[in-house]
Write a structure and sequence with these properties.
Blueprint: H1 9-14, H2 16-25, H3 27-42, H4 51-60, E1 68-69, E2 73-75, H5 86-95, E3 103-104, E4 109-110, H6 115-124, E5 130-134, H7 137-148, E6 153-157, E7 163-165, E8 168-169, H8 170-176, E9 180-184, H9 192-198, E10 203-209, H10 225-229, E11 235-240, H11 256-261, E12 266-270, E13 281-285, H12 287-295, H13 299-302, H14 306-317, H15 322-328, H16 331-343, E14 349-358, E15 361-375, H17 378-384, E16 387-388, E17 390-392, E18 395-399, H18 408-418
The structure holds pyridoxal-5'-phosphate (PLP).
InterPro entries: PyrdxlP-dep_Trfase (IPR015424), PyrdxlP-dep_Trfase_major (IPR015421), SelA-like (IPR018319), SelA_trans (IPR004534), SelA_trans_N_dom (IPR025862)
Catalytic activity: L-seryl-tRNA(Sec) + selenophosphate + H(+) = L-selenocysteinyl-tRNA(Sec) + phosphate
Subcellular location: Cytoplasm
Length: about 425
């Protein structure tokens, strides 16, 4: 292959698909992808006709690609947790340019950052004296450790030294924040007396962590927030999933309002689990403590971006987010949709199944659902079509509960593209 046969950068940039890619990725990224593909062609690793498509392929790998979640796991951590509502997506787009995130249009002066999101959160949880939003729940806990217990003790039950996932352990996060842990009780039983005996002048706060992704059954007991609230030190409650008020469909899942009413000084939670919003960390509770957290120097390093604040506000004020819709979808409509999808794909079957909440929330709750069952090999073929199903019992199940009804047709197209279930 000769060097001359390799297309030049200018010609490639003005050719149709790459010219359009400039609008999406910007000129610098497109040029870099072209140069890399040209280099590969020079080294004989790519034929000159393939330079444009190799550059495009490299660019398409740059973007996070949308996928259809047919796993039946409502809050799928590996798929980005909660999908945003239309209102939140519109708010993201509106906030992408200049926005009044820290500006008062009436006075022309600087204003409290993200005050719209903070007001919406405060109104959603009237029991909170004040609220603050940070990057995620881990950041909320870290800020508590940094601001309320530097060089001091956090009193925590041995039954609540939790690993959330991917090696993220709450005890290690807290000690990384410069606090010492004072472990009390045992794995299965911890009483209010255990806490009381450990509290002293060195105590920064008592922390209760919701063991969100596992259950301990049998001879167990834990101290309630109400019991701990009377011990004379702040009680911080990590409720995990971000339920703001009790939900009868999720018995046993702690919520912010109940924890505050029981006497919690602060509640921490994620915004992208059951709340159904963008990645964020919520802090709600005592006004003075929230002010201390907000004024700590590390608060700046943990703060939420303008896009998050905009999407959070829209999630809180707008219509129910998809997580809530999925949670309340009734089994009959799921069955009808599963039959409609299966009818369009010869050889597909409909099976009864259970969806789960996921995201380390409500581990015991099973939501009755219906799925389209395909041969197991479809799992990989469908991933190539950006559809993620669930492998179960030697089959690939597509659970309709986590599929937006508006995506049913796309699901059928993806299955048809992935192969014929009747062929081996
Ligand atoms: C998910 C979870 C966390 C971590 O939240 P992030 O928002 O992912 O940082 C912390 N604590 C509990 C109990 C959780 O369930």
């Amino acid at each position: 292959m000769t060097r001359r046969s390799i297309p030049g950068t200018g010609a490639l940039l003005s050719s149709s698909p790459l010219r359009e890619a400039v609008a999406v990725h910007g000129r610098t990224a497109v040029k870099a992808a072209i140069h890399k593909a040209q280099q590969e062609a020079r080294e004989g690793r790519l034929s000159s006709e393939d330079v444009a498509s190799a550059a495009l392929a490299a660019l398409s790998r740059l973007v996070a690609r949308p996928v259809l979640n047919a796993t039946g796991v409502l809050i799928h951590t590996n798929l980005g947790r909660a999908p945003l509502s239309e209102a939140a997506r519109a708010a993201l787009s509106a906030a992408a340019g200049w926005t009044d995130v820290e500006f008062d249009l009436a006075t022309g002066r600087r204003a409290a950052r993200g005050r719209g999101a903070l007001a919406a959160l405060g109104e959603a949880v009237p029991d909170a004296g004040a609220v603050h939003v940070v990057n995620n729940n881990a950041a909320a806990l870290l800020l508590c450790a940094l601001a309320l217990a530097p060089g001091r003790e956090i009193v925590i039950s041995r039954g609540e030294l939790v690993e959330i996932g991917d090696g993220f352990r709450i005890p290690e996060l807290l000690t990384a924040g410069g606090a010492r842990l004072r472990e009390v009780g045992t794995t299965n039983r911890t009483t209010a007396r255990d806490y009381a005996a450990a509290i002293g002048p060195d105590t920064g706060f008592v922390l209760k962590v919701h063991p969100s992704n596992f259950r301990v059954e049998g001879f167990t007991s834990a101290a309630s927030v109400a019991e701990l609230a009377g011990l004379g030190v702040p009680v911080v409650v990590d409720i995990g999933s971000g339920l703001l008020a009790p939900d009868p469909r999720l018995p046993g899942e702690p919520d912010a309002a109940s924890a505050l009413r029981a006497g919690a000084a602060l509640v921490t939670a994620s915004a992208d689990k059951l709340l159904g919003g963008p990645q964020g960390g919520l802090l709600l509770g005592d006004r003075d403590l929230v002010t201390t957290l907000r004024r700590h120097p590390a608060a700046r390093a943990l703060r939420a971006g303008k896009l998050v604040l905009a999407a959070l506000e829209a999630t809180l004020r707008g219509p129910l987010p998809p997580v809530a819709e999925m949670l309340s979808a009734d089994a009959d409509s799921l069955r009808r949709r599963a039959h409609a999808v299966a009818a369009a794909v010869r050889g597909a079957e409909v099976v009864e199944t259970d969806s789960v909440v996921g995201g380390g929330a409500a581990p015991g709750v099973r939501l009755p659902s219906f799925a389209v069952a395909l041969p197991e090999r479809f799992a990989a073929a469908l991933r190539a079509e950006r559809v993620v199903g669930r492998a179960e019992g030697g089959r690939c199940l597509l659970d309709l509960r986590t599929v937006d009804p508006a995506d049913d047709e796309a699901l059928v197209r993806a299955v048809l593209a992935a192969g014929d279930p009747r062929c081996r």
